[in-house]
């Protein structure tokens, strides 16, 4: 995969003004997510808060972006996120802090998250948008994530708890033990929380990115 092509993730917390403890909670969760995602080689640089409740990073492998997005949403629960992903060049040497870097990947990411905020992509609500020079790719992956987000918007707090544990410990018995629930309850929460559809999106979207930019 060409080293000059990067994916930039820009995200913000929705309805953040209603949470008095939002900044402290966001900082704590982002620190933990940075440590984990750097270790997993999902990201090149730690998450950096850029303004208020917004943060950004540069990912490591393009094809791992969908896995990163799902894990990031789980890691930041109960904070709901809007996310824009830009794929393209970076004008500067990739080094921290990420909020001082520039380039088309940042421009595409900014435009993508603004499209989410403005409800500019579809007549239904979405939480995720991609932007790149590849118009066909953008149309395809944004529709895929539009359908993905339609399901995810109906995932409850209890269902997210099951998803979070299953992502950490991908065996029903282990997740059930940690949640102190029976296996059938965890299985039901994963199914009703659309986990299996979200997981398939990760696979298909990762392959689409690989084909489009590999």
What does this structure look like?
With 214 residues, this protein is an alpha+beta fold. It is built from 8 helices and 5 strands; from the N terminus they run βαββαβαβααααα. It has a 5-stranded mixed β-sheet. Helix 2 runs antiparallel to helix 8, helix 5 crosses helix 6 and helix 6 crosses helix 7. The longest helix is centred in the C-terminal third of the chain and has 19 residues. It is globular, with a radius of gyration of 17 Å.
Short précis:
This protein has helices at 22-39, 65-75, 104-117, 135-152, 157-168, 172-179, 183-192, 195-213, and strands spanning 6-13, 48-51, 54-58, 81-88, 128-131. By secondary structure, the protein is α+β, with helices and mostly antiparallel strands.
How are the secondary structure elements laid out?
Blueprint: E1 6-13, H1 22-39, E2 48-51, E3 54-58, H2 65-75, E4 81-88, H3 104-117, E5 128-131, H4 135-152, H5 157-168, H6 172-179, H7 183-192, H8 195-213
Parallel strand pairs: 4-5
Antiparallel strand pairs: 1-3, 1-4, 2-3
Helix pairs in contact: 2-8, 4-8, 5-6, 5-7, 6-7
Instruction: From the 3D structure, determine the CATH topology of the domain at 6-134.
Output: Alpha-Beta Plaits
The CATH architecture term of the domain at 6-134 is 2-Layer Sandwich
**Radius of gyration, whole Å:** 17 Å
Q: Which stretches are poorly predicted, pLDDT < 50 over at least 5 residues?
A: none
Question: How far do the termini sit from each other?
Answer: 5 Å
Tell me the helix content: 40-55%
SSE order: EHEEHEHEHHHHH
- What composes the largest sheet? 5 strands, mixed
What's the β-strand tally? 5
CATH class of the domain at 6-134 equals Alpha Beta
How many DSSP H or I helices? 8
Assigned CATH superfamily of the domain at 6-134: Reverse transcriptase/Diguanylate cyclase domain
Mean pLDDT: 93
Derived from helix and strand composition plus strand pairing, the structural class reads: alpha+beta
């Amino acid at each position: 995969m060409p080293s000059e092509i990067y994916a930039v993730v820009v995200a913000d917390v929705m309805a953040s003004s209603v949470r008095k403890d939002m900044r402290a909670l966001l900082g704590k969760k982002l620190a933990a997510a940075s440590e984990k995602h750097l270790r997993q080689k999902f990201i090149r640089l730690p998450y950096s808060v850029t303004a208020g409740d917004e943060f950004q990073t540069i990912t490591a492998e393009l094809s791992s972006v969908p896995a990163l997005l799902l894990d990031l949403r789980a890691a930041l629960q109960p904070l709901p996120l809007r996310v824009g992903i830009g794929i393209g060049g970076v004008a500067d040497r990739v080094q921290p802090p990420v909020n001082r870097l520039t380039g088309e990947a940042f421009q595409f990411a900014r435009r993508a998250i603004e499209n989410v905020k403005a409800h500019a992509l579809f007549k239904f609500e979405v939480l995720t948008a991609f932007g790149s020079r590849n118009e066909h790719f953008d149309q395809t992956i944004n529709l895929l994530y539009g359908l993905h987000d339609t399901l995810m918007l109906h995932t409850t707090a209890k269902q997210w708890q099951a998803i979070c544990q299953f992502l950490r410990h991908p065996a029903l018995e282990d997740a059930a033990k940690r949640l102190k629930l029976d296996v059938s309850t965890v299985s039901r929460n994963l199914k009703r929380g659309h986990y299996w559809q979200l997981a398939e999106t990760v696979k298909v979207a990762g392959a689409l990115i690989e084909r489009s930019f590999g």
